[in-house]
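The material for today's practical consists of a large collection of protein records. A record pairs a protein's sequence with a compact description of its fold. Instead of coordinates, the fold is spelled out as a row of discrete tokens. We will come back to this pairing of sequence and fold again and again. Here is such a record, shown just as it appears in the course material.
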Amino acid sequence: MKVSLCLVTEVQAGSICPEPQDLPVELQEFQKVFSEEFFTMLPEYCPYDIAIDLEEDKQPPYGPIYSMTPAERESLKEHIDSELAVGKTVPTTSPAGAPVMFLDLRNGYHNIRIKEGDEWNTEFCTALGHFAPTVMQFSLSNAPAVFMHFMNNIFHDLLDISGLYVTYIGLVITPDVISMEKDKVQAIMDWPEPQNVKQVQSFLGFANFYCCFVPNFSCLAHPLNILTQKEQPWIWLEEQKAAFDAIKAEICKEPVLAHPDESKPYTLETDASGAAMGAVLSQRKEDGCLHPVAFMSASFSPAELNYDMHDKELLAIICAFEHWRIFLEGTEQPITVFTDHKNLEYWKSARTFNR
């Protein structure tokens, strides 16, 4: 078991959030979370305190004391002093101890206690002494899961009362649909025509984030992808310009995706061309129309390019089922697949093979 501690040195614990003087009425009941006292106080023990169970016959290691600059040493002293003052760290004499390293992080984990009796497993040694934290430290393997449990326990009964949508990593999520963030769409609209391979790669990297909104994205992008291949000469012709403009046009339509509904059957539409395949997963909503849940596309590998057309069409179906396995594998509703290749009906007929 390897234990390392990442100590916050950015600011003093009590100087981050001054207590507000005039909170909105609807936030008055949460006023304590803005106070210095609440931020620095030692939390109570609770059911989700982090436990540190060692493997049998294993002991925490004893790490070296790293050399520090005067500024780092002073920051470490300030941090230890502030933690000792509120009980989040206590002096120890145990032979075990991890070295200290500095990371630019906040103190969110310090709202969770280490399970009583397990503190010695996270001890750290410094030139200033030997200490054991009483609150959860960064880099413990189970810290993210414990912190998520902590956050879920706090927010499970709270609702967002300030809006009807959430913006998350370039997506706008509402109760009904998922769409693209408008400033990202505007960035695509304003994107200048590439002048070299690096600019093509930059455009494709940005646009590829929204490929799930664009039907047959890989097919549209194929002429541009060719330019990024090794030892491919730079040739910007009408075909590349048309592909560039087509991708921009599809994204600028600002398509939306419906949320999947497990109670409704899925419809899968697949297609394959000479160079790429694509699919759309849809569901029929309350208005009686099919609404896309997601789009998928991919270029064929060099080996797949040699497939016959009916095999490419079948591969598109297989890849679509694999790509959306999380939706399709456990559904109790029938899945309808639409494909435009009549030769695939051959696979539905019973066949007798001679040995």
The longest strand covers residues 290-299. Residues 1-19 have pLDDT under 50 and may be disordered. The domain at 166-252 is CATH 3.30.70.270 (Alpha-Beta Plaits).
